[in-house]
Design a protein that fits this description.
Length: about 170
């Protein structure tokens, strides 16, 4: 394979909207991170942090549903992709707010570009020869590149967004 033939580009722009995601919604948190959103996933109780501008709390806990908080979204959809669609619809998230592959899907940290030379020996040889752009999570040191997973993620995000836009 010829180095640099993969045309998908990486981004380091970050979204301003933030989410505090209840632990049982971990799959939703991962999809929000795929979108580039800051999605902190942890167990929630009735002792929630004070409201913060641009931050939304996502949960399925009935006990939290009764709290009078405008920043609290009670999620009803059963699966992560439909939960993502629900969040997009309710918060009117636009395609321009989505920045795929800009956060670590595990740690939630913004990814940083890393010179290609520094990934040699840390990625499979064929990946090193095929790709020019790499990103690294500063916390877990995991490496990311626009591999075959990125088009599948983007396709799912586009399909989810299209379904969201169809709904009234």
């Amino acid at each position: 394979m010829v180095r640099g033939t993969h045309s998908t580009s990486l981004t380091t722009d970050y979204c301003l909207m933030k989410f505090l995601v209840d632990l049982p919604l971990g799959g939703l948190a991962k999809w929000l991170r795929f979108c580039g959103f800051d999605a902190d996933c942890r167990g929630l109780s009735s002792d929630l942090p004070p409201p913060a501008a641009g931050t939304f709390i996502l949960t399925r806990q009935e006990s939290l549903k009764r709290l009078p908080r405008p920043d609290l979204l009670f999620i009803t959809a059963p699966e992560p992709e439909s939960q993502l669609q629900e969040v997009w619809r309710r918060l009117k998230i636009s395609p321009g707010q989505i920045k795929p592959l800009s956060r670590c899907s595990r740690c939630n940290e913004p990814l940083t570009p890393i010179p290609r030379e520094q990934v040699q020996g840390r990625v499979p040889e064929h990946v090193f020869h095929y790709h020019d752009q790499f990103l690294e999570c500063p916390r877990c040191r995991r490496l990311f590149w626009p591999g075959s997973h990125l088009p599948a993620i983007i396709r799912t995000l586009q399909e989810t967004l299209q379904e969201t836009l169809k709904e009234p």
